[in-house]
């Protein structure tokens, strides 16, 4: 997979025009192993991107009392590298292991590494003789990490109906080394 985009920025207060063109290589790999007629293991490795909010990329300053919100035209997309490992046990033996889930136990562990994580930087500046707090989204020089474990129990208890119970535990870490 590949993600490409063009972003045009025009200024209505000056004759400035800027075009940003970026392409991201997004490889993915998925493997499924059938352990038995109703049990399988999954492994997925992939890479994706998350674009910054468009409003965060527009260069602007908005002041409210002693706070200033500032856009950042140099924001880059976050790049997310993912590893997922899953275990599925269907409680009803189906004709094919590829049919939709109906009743079963599903466990998934995952890790996401996020490069160029977007964080909100806060600092103080003097503007028109006033000390103000300035908030601006920036890309962290370090990475963020999200790990998790999820478990679902699904029971098809009547025609077209299903009882589902889920549990998730997550741990996140982000280092905020600011350039």
Structural commentary:
The protein is mainly beta and 179 residues long. The chain is built from 1 helix and 12 strands, in the order ββββαββββββββ. It has one helix at 54-57, and strands at 2-10, 17-25, 28-36, 39-50, 61-64, 67-70, 78-90, 104-115, 118-127, 130-139, 143-158, 161-174. A 6-stranded antiparallel β-sheet has the order 3-4-7-8-11-12, with no helix packed on it. Strands 5-6-10-9 form a 4-stranded mixed β-sheet, with no helix packed on it. A two-stranded antiparallel ribbon has the order 1-2.
Lay out the secondary structure:
Blueprint (H helix, E strand, L loop, with lengths): L1 E9 L6 E9 L2 E9 L2 E12 L3 H4 L3 E4 L2 E4 L7 E13 L13 E12 L2 E10 L2 E10 L3 E16 L2 E14 L5
Parallel strand pairs: 6-10
Antiparallel strand pairs: 1-2, 3-4, 4-7, 5-6, 7-8, 8-11, 9-10, 11-12
Can you give the helix content as a percent range? under 10%
The total count of strands amounts to 12
Shape: elongated
Return residue spans where pLDDT drops below 50 for at least 5 consecutive residues.
none
Structural class: mainly beta
* Strand order in the sheet with the most strands: 3-4-7-8-11-12
Indicate the mean pLDDT.
82
N-to-C span: 30 Å
Described by strand count, sense and barrel closure, the largest sheet is: 6 strands, antiparallel
Approximately how much beta-strand content do the residues carry? Answer: over 45%
Radius of gyration: 23 Å
Reading the helices and strands in chain order gives: EEEEHEEEEEEEE
> Helix segment count?
1
């Amino acid at each position: 997979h590949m993600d490409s985009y063009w972003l045009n920025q025009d200024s209505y207060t000056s004759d400035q025009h800027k075009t940003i063109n970026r392409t991201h290589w997004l490889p993915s790999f998925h493997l499924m192993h059938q352990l038995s007629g109703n049990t399988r293991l999954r492994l997925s490795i992939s890479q994706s991107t998350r674009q910054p909010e468009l409003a965060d990329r527009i260069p602007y300053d908005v002041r409210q009392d002693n706070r200033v919100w500032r856009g950042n035209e140099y924001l880059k997309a976050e790049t997310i590298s993912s590893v997922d490992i899953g275990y599925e046990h269907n409680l009803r033996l189906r004709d094919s292991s590829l049919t939709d889930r109906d009743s079963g136990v599903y466990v998934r562990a995952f890790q996401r590494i996020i490069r160029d994580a977007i964080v909100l930087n806060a600092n103080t500046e003097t503007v028109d003789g006033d000390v103000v707090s300035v908030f601006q989204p920036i890309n962290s020089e370090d990475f963020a990490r999200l790990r998790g474990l999820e478990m679902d129990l699904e029971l098809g208890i009547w025609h077209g109906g299903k009882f589902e119970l889920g549990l998730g535990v997550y741990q996140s870490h982000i280092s905020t080394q600011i350039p």
